[in-house]
Amino acid sequence: MASIRLDKVSKQYDGHDAVIEEMDLQIRDGELLVLVGPSGCGKSTLLRMVAGLEEISAGEILIDDQVVNQLPPQKRNLAMVFQNYALYPHMTVRENLAFPLKMQRLSRDEVNRRVAQTAELLSLGNLLDRRPKQLSGGQRQRVAMGRAMVRDADAFLMDEPLSNLDAKLRVEIRSEIAALQRRLGITTLYVTHDQVEAMTLGHRVAVMRAGKLQQVATPSRLYEHPVNVFVAGFIGNPGMNVLRVMLETVDKALVFRLGEHCFTLPQSVMENYPDLPNRSGQMLLLGIRPATLTLVESGGNGSLEATMSSAEPLGHETILHVNADIDVVATDTEDPGNTLLKRPTLTAIIPGHRHFKPGETVHLQIDCDKLHCFDLQGTALAHH
Ligand SMILES: Nc1ncnc2c1ncn2[C@@H]1O[C@H](COP(=O)(O)OP(=O)(O)OP(=O)(O)O)[C@@H](O)[C@H]1O
Ligand SMILES: [Mg+2]
Prior knowledge:
There is one protein chain. This protein starts with a strand and ends in a 10-residue tail after the last strand. It is elongated and about 80 Å long. By secondary structure, it is α+β, with helices and mostly antiparallel strands. The longest helix has 18 residues, at about 165-185. The chain has helices spanning about 45-50, 75, 95-105, 110-120, 135-150, 165-185, 195-200, 220-225, 230-235, 265-270, and strands at about 5-10, 20-25, 30-35, 60-65, 65, 80, 155-160, 185-190, 205-210, 210-215, 240-250, 255-260, 260-265, 285-290, 295, 305-315, 315-325, 330, 345-350, 360-365, 370-375. It folds into 2 domains: about 5-230, P-loop containing nucleotide triphosphate hydrolases (Rossmann fold); about 240-375, CATH 2.40.50.140. The chain is built from 10 helices and 21 strands. Magnesium ion binds near residues 83 and 159.
């Protein structure tokens, strides 16, 4: 077992902009840390640098406090599962599992012992004599993981290991990976672009964007206290709604307006963000989680009139996309500086299954206790 540390690690390919910029990250001994971010943000590059398959341009990578920058991959004793794994098609499952051990010149008894142990762990025992083409996608995936695990490595590096599977298998194997990791307690760095995978698997989750680390925290912390609108929009399914509003003081209470309605910021929000009173008369970005919008029968104070755009029934809940009937300037979570971008669409999640007609008028109640506050650059306001 091992801990892995990145100390100001940067990567720049010749003649290109930096792909990874001064990344500091620690994966604790026995931890499953998920690295998540949009396609192209540098996740695979980072993993390959830890594995030793890619040179780093600056900084240090340490395994158990030993700098490994110069160590070749085979000396790092890390097991990697690649984005596109490949099994040896002409070998049986048993031979596929045994192959890395034979490369290490272990005795035949030791090879057999480890193969049996890994097969037991991954429930591959009755498949050992089959070839890859006689296996289902999920079984192949497990063999690929087994081939990484059989080696008794100090840590696992997994690059989107579930990306080739259908949705049902992905959920199934995801929970198998979680259980296995817990049982073995093996340090794991797991890369994905899927925030659901990140939230369900990670002890902690590191959110990356364009080569820069945004936030590293437990899943619940990321959800409840995103440090900026990018993380707020990326985590959660669907992500947070962000609106640009003006804060005003009316009768000694801090309020914001949406359309014709005036919303008072409740005590809980004032306590969460002690700096708010100083921002009266300024613009602010408000974050509203889709699940904190509820459908109400008719407009009253604290509700918002909107026009149905589309609804996605998921069975146990329905995702609504509505156009708020207000003249509000929305903010692009991808580019918080771009505050003039108009996106009056809001997303709400309501329980159960209901039929909607496009164009229908609905009223949404905002749970103001659950509001998030960001400055115009998209950074979360100082939080208690
Ligand atoms: N050899 C290379 N030369 C120049 N740029 C490269 C090279 N390899 C990768 N890149 C660039 O580095 C960036 C990060 O790529 P990387 O593969 O790490 O992304 P990723 O986060 O794993 O994306 P995905 O989710 O699509 O797998 C991309 O913009 C990519 O174009
Ligand atoms: Mg990748």
